[in-house]
């Protein structure tokens, strides 16, 4: 059994709860689809935990913003949060982020952060029939939208596990997926939202950035 997590975004409170849930199951392998950093300030705690557990991870667009001079063209909020995190992330964790691939192919799964046309920054809110026709494999996973979904295209099945650290489907619970070799299942987990809100406040974040977690709201206004 495999667990697929994504879009942690510096929210260690959510990651802890998800990993504790996973530890109580028969899951024997975990993959992370990227965006380990971005938005919330527990970036070192998240990186350290993933490294400690030797979880296989993919580079997300926010991870790319962290290790490069590239900024998000869509969101001032995303850029502001990355600038805060750049002041606190350790050199070891920066080096680890730089080592991450943008694609993982296992015996069963094809994994990217965003999409197969652009692994870093393609949004698959809606997937047209035929999208996977010329892509090798039958089971596909990506994150990036923060919206969990499972879609079937003939023999090909796509899963977005949703977001661990910043759900955007109006359900504040952390989201991830499990895969048994033939089918996917979305799992939701309650976590201590008040704790990450307080940590963010302690780091000087405006409530605009963290109050959304209580309702699972969608994109920032800017």
Structure explained in plain terms:
It is a single chain. The protein is an alpha/beta fold and 222 residues long. It has one domain (2-214): 4-Layer Sandwich (Purple Acid Phosphatase, chain A, domain 2), CATH 3.60.21.10. The chain has seven helices and ten strands. The protein has helices at 12-23, 43-52, 61-67, 76-86, 91-98, 193-202, 207-210, and strands at 2-5, 29-32, 56-57, 104-105, 109-111, 139-141, 149-153, 156-160, 174-179, 184-189. The protein has a five-stranded mixed β-sheet with strand order 3-2-1-9-10. It has a five-stranded mixed β-sheet with strand order 4-5-6-8-7, with no helix packed on it. α1 (12-23) links the parallel β1 (2-5) and β2 (29-32).
Low-confidence parts, pLDDT < 50 over ≥5 residues?
Answer: none
The name of the CATH architecture is: 4-Layer Sandwich
Number of domains: 1
Radius of gyration over all CA atoms, rounded: 16 Å
% residues in beta strands: 15-25%
What CATH first level would be assigned? Alpha Beta
Number of helices: 7
Average pLDDT reading:
93
Distance linking N and C termini:
39 Å
User: What is the overall shape?
Assistant: globular
Strand order of the largest sheet: 3-2-1-9-10
> Helical amount among residues, as a percent range?
25-40%
CATH topology grouping = Purple Acid Phosphatase, chain A, domain 2
Largest sheet: 5 strands, mixed
What's the helix and strand layout?
Elements lengths: L1 E4 L6 H12 L5 E4 L10 H10 L3 E2 L3 H7 L8 H11 L4 H8 L5 E2 L3 E3 L27 E3 L7 E5 L2 E5 L13 E6 L4 E6 L3 H10 L4 H4 L12
């Amino acid at each position: 059994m495999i667990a697929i997590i994504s879009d942690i975004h510096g929210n260690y409170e959510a990651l802890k709860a998800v990993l504790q849930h996973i530890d109580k199951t028969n899951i024997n392998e975990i993959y992370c689809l990227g965006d380990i950093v971005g938005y919330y300030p527990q970036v070192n705690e998240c990186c350290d935990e993933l490294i400690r557990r030797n979880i296989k991870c993919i580079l997300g667009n926010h991870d790319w913003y962290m290790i490069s001079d590239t900024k998000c063209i869509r969101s001032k909020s995303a850029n502001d949060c990355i600038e805060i995190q750049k002041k606190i992330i350790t050199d070891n964790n920066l080096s680890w982020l730089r080592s991450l691939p943008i694609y993982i192919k296992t015996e069963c799964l094809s994994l990217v952060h965003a999409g197969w046309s652009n692994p870093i920054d393609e949004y698959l809110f809606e997937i047209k029939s035929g999208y996977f026709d010329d892509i090798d494999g039958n089971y596909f996973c990506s994150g990036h939208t923060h919206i969990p979904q499972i879609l079937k295209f003939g023999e090909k099945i796509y899963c977005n596990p949703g977001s661990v650290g910043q759900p955007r489907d109006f359900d504040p619970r952390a989201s991830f997926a499990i895969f048994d070799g033939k089918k996917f299942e979305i799992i939701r987990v309650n976590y201590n939202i008040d704790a990450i809100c307080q940590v963010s406040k302690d780091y000087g974040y405006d409530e605009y950035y963290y109050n959304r977690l209580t309702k699972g709201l969608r994109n920032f206004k800017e």
